[in-house]
Amino acid sequence: MIKKKSTPNHVAIIMDGNGRWALKNGKTRKAGHRAGSKNVMSIIEAACEEGIKYITLYAFSTENWKRPEDEKKALFNLLSEFYKKEIDRLIKNNILIKHIGDISKFPKQTQNIIRETEEKTSALSENTKITVIIALNYGTYDEVKRGLIKFYEDVKSDKIDISSIEETTILNYLDTKEIPNPDLLIRTSGEYRISNFLLLQIAYTELYFTDTLWPDFSKEEFTKAIDSYTKRERRYGGISS
To answer: Do 232 and 206 touch, CB atoms closer than 8 A?
Structure first.
């Protein structure tokens, strides 16, 4: 199967480089994360302009718990600030917010704001311009572990016939069960790795790496990534026509 060149339906982004941006500009890591947070709406708007229907942003990984306590607290506060500041803008622009990952380990106040934002934007589902998926306390290994637990429970209760398992069965136990797989994955900051992000979902995803640090990743840089995608031919194991 070969798909013709087109705008990606779903773009995933590993937003990397806030700390290095801070070091480069003589600022604190907290200031770097704040600069990165300010860039989020700009890229969401760029995705809307490109006609992209889904964008997934890697905001906090399961490995990020290893960071210093004050940095983690700053990240939680920035997340809450972002939602409080942008909620009206999100609703006005028909932007639906979803989350993947296990938020149960976050502070209760942060969890409440996450759920409130999802609830407030969920009413837009019929007129959604774009669905923004925020990955919070997300990692593929943890996602698979949680999915296997649910799967085992369903097998035990006879909700699943283990002899009839298909690829779609597996996908239905992932956090992204209602979301199409990404067409394009972008990683900023010059790192060339996936970092435990959507490892099953990106089996046939096109990859784009850039040296630009996330706070400096502009709409123009985003457009460059999309243009690169449109020049590629996706074969899915097939051959060129």
So the answer is: yes
Torsional class of 189: left (φ above 0), alpha (ψ -120 to 50), beta (otherwise): left
Q: pLDDT at position 126, please?
A: 66
The pairing of beta strand 206-209 with beta strand 130-138 = unpaired
Report the amino acid identity of residue 205: T
3-state secondary structure at position 237? coil
**pLDDT per residue as tens digits for the range 115-165:** 999 999 987 666 789 999 999 999 999 999 999 999 999 999 999 988 888
Q: Given this model, what pLDDT does residue 1 score? A: 42
Q: Which domains does the chain have, with CATH numbers?
A: 10-139+183-230 (3.40.1180.10)
CA distance 49 to 47: 5
Q: Judge whether 64 counts as a catalytic residue.
A: yes
Instruction: Return the ∠ at Cα 97 (arms to 175 and 135), rounded to 5°.
Output: 45
Contact 96, 130 (CB under 8 A): yes
Low-confidence ranges of the chain (pLDDT < 70): 1-5, 124-126, 236-241
pLDDT at site 234:
75
Q: From the candidates 64, 93, 94, 172, give the one annotated as an active-site residue.
A: 64
16 is catalytic: yes
